[in-house]
Amino acid sequence: MTPLPSADQVWQALAQVPDPEIPVINVVEMGIVRDVRVEGGKAVVTMTPTFSGCPALHVIRENLEQAVRGLGFGEVEVRTVLFPPWSTDSITPEARAKLERYGIAPPRPAGEVGLIELELEPVRCPRCGSLDTSVKNTFGPTLCKSIHVCNACREPFESFKTL
């Protein structure tokens, strides 16, 4: 009988699951996966969505379960918890760098702005680094992003809202 993978191996498998809305980062780097436990022959993954109405929630759950089943677990439970709520502070430094390379301005630490960012501070352009940017639309392609334009390089870009 082959032993089941460890919790560390489950974490490694989950780190291969891309975020469905931002495929250059994975769900572990995004801070969505909160805990992994192996209980007997069962794997339990605890996740917190970026917000409770996330339209990709069902896709994330299915992808997490599929990744863990691929390791040989017959039983996988994906638990969703909403407390403590997800925050942009949950995004790893590596993922912030990937966001910027992808052309999305990463969020500032939430502790710097309070509960909700009103985007009064300029957002650094991920392409040229200029702070001479303007908000074009506070509602981006997803609820967690806004649309900006850089007045220096004239490139439009998305900015991750700080939560």
Distinctive features:
single chain, 163 residues, alpha/beta, GMP Synthetase, Chain A, domain 3, 2 domains, 4-stranded mixed β-sheet, 3-stranded mixed β-sheet, 3 helices, elongated
Description:
- The protein folds into two domains: 7-80, Fe-S cluster assembly (FSCA) (GMP Synthetase, Chain A, domain 3); 88-160, no CATH class.
- The protein has a four-stranded mixed β-sheet. A three-stranded mixed β-sheet has the order 1-2-3, covered by helices on one side.
- Helices cover 19% and strands 23% of the residues.
- It has helices spanning 7-14, 57-69, 93-102, and strands at residues 33-39, 42-47, 75-80, 104-105, 133-137, 145-150, 156-160.
- With 163 residues, the protein is an alpha/beta fold.
Give the name of the CATH architecture of the largest domain. Answer: 2-Layer Sandwich
Per CATH, the superfamily of the largest domain is Fe-S cluster assembly (FSCA)
What distance lies between the first and last C-alpha atoms, to the nearest angstrom?
46 Å
The CATH class name of the largest domain reads Alpha Beta
What is the strand arrangement across the widest sheet? 4-7-6-5
Tell me how many strands there are: 7
Shape: elongated
> Secondary-structure element sequence?
HEEHEHEEEE
Strand content: 15-25%
Tally of individual helices: 3
Note poorly predicted spans: none
CATH topology of the largest domain: GMP Synthetase, Chain A, domain 3
* Oligomeric category: single chain
Number of domains: 2
Q: What class would the helix/strand composition place it in?
A: alpha/beta
What is the alpha-carbon Rg in Å? 18 Å
Q: Residue share in helices? A: 10-25%
Largest beta-sheet characterization: 4 strands, mixed
Q: Please state the average pLDDT score.
A: 89
